[in-house]
Automatic annotation (TrEMBL):
<keyword id="KW-0547">Nucleotide-binding</keyword>
<dbReference type="Pfam" id="PF00005">
    <property type="entry name" value="ABC_tran"/>
</dbReference>
<dbReference type="GO" id="GO:0005524">
    <property type="term" value="F:ATP binding"/>
</dbReference>
<feature type="domain" description="ABC transporter">
    <location>
        <begin position="6"/>
        <end position="235"/>
    </location>
</feature>
<keyword id="KW-1003">Cell membrane</keyword>
<keyword id="KW-0472">Membrane</keyword>
<protein>
    <submittedName>
        <fullName>ABC transporter ATP-binding protein</fullName>
    </submittedName>
</protein>
<dbReference type="InterPro" id="IPR003439">
    <property type="entry name" value="ABC_transporter-like_ATP-bd"/>
</dbReference>
<keyword id="KW-0067">ATP-binding</keyword>
<keyword id="KW-0813">Transport</keyword>
<dbReference type="InterPro" id="IPR027417">
    <property type="entry name" value="P-loop_NTPase"/>
</dbReference>
<dbReference type="InterPro" id="IPR017871">
    <property type="entry name" value="ABC_transporter-like_CS"/>
</dbReference>
<dbReference type="InterPro" id="IPR051782">
    <property type="entry name" value="ABC_Transporter_VariousFunc"/>
</dbReference>
<dbReference type="InterPro" id="IPR003593">
    <property type="entry name" value="AAA+_ATPase"/>
</dbReference>
Length: 237
């Protein structure tokens, strides 16, 4: 069997007296789309930074595609694509040039036809490929980010609030892209408050509270209203 894309086992992390993560365990197999519902301060950013190897845990372990992050974070990071809330690409370069540049950084030298195909698959229309990214909307920058992830053949995609500030069309396009990526075996972990998109795309939902996953909900069998009630109750705790 394939190694899980992500395996977090009883991870703890403190900042001085403050416990940010308190025994967080989470395993993601290839193709799973996990939505992390995280009220402010619950430990979302700490979780993402630990997976990326920018922080070290005080206890527990994290593996990406079977490799310990503690062993060689640069190596495990090469299997990960991280899309922050605002995808950072070079404004003076075009979408195509950004994709070429970030692919080269990941030692992937792709010809223009392949780069353009990846941009099209990520939903960036051909007439935008050669325009300066400075004029791109948030949704367009995100599409370039997804194309970069696909060019790098990332096995694990981390997204932080991917739909905040997107119009409904862009958000729905993003759901389609995430579904397509998951069908290709990419495991996706997205921190979000967007219950509507969760219903659309997530295969699992977990509520992060006080540094651990307090409960999991099956998005397929849970009504939207129930999902919302659970989340609101969690926010009010
Ligand atoms: N560098 C740090 N120094 C001290 N405390 C920290 C540090 N980073 C995080 N914390 C604390 O750890 C807890 C979890 O923080 P984290 O940033 O992971 O939460 P979050 O869920 O991302 O919150 P938000 O959504 O508000 O950014 C919080 O109580 C926070 O104050």
């Amino acid at each position: 069997m394939m190694k899980p894309a992500l395996q977090m086992d009883k991870v703890t992390r403190r900042f001085g007296e403050r416990v940010a993560l308190n025994g967080l365990s989470l395993t993601l197999q290839a193709g799973e789309v996990y939505a992390l519902l995280a009220p402010n301060g619950a430990g979302k950013t700490t979780t993402l930074n630990l997976i990326l190897g920018f922080l070290q845990p005080d206890g527990g372990s994290i593996h990406v595609c079977g490799e310990p992050v503690a062993g060689d974070a640069a190596r495990t990071r090469s299997a990960i694509a991280y899309l922050p809330e605002q995808v950072a690409i070079y404004p003076e370069l075009s979408g195509l040039e950004n994709l070429r540049y970030f692919s080269l950084l990941a030692s992937k030298e792709l010809d223009d036809a392949t780069l353009r195909r990846l941009l099209l698959e990520a939903g960036l229309r051909a007439d935008a490929h050669d325009r300066h990214a400075r004029n791109y909307s948030k949704g367009m920058r995100q599409k370039v980010g997804i194309a970069i992830a696909m060019a790098r053949e990332a096995r694990l995609l981390l997204l932080d609030e991917p739909t905040s500030g997107l119009d409904p069309l862009a958000a729905s396009e993003l759901s389609g892209l995430l579904r397509a990526a998951s069908q290709r075996g990419v495991a996706i972990l997205m921190a979000t408050h967007d219950l509507y998109r969760i219903k659309e795309v997530a295969t699992r939902v977990g509520v992060l509270h006080a540094g651990r996953i307090e409960r999991e909900i099956d998005p397929q069998t849970t009504e939207h209203a129930t999902l919302e009630q659970v989340y609101i109750a969690e926010l009010a705790r």
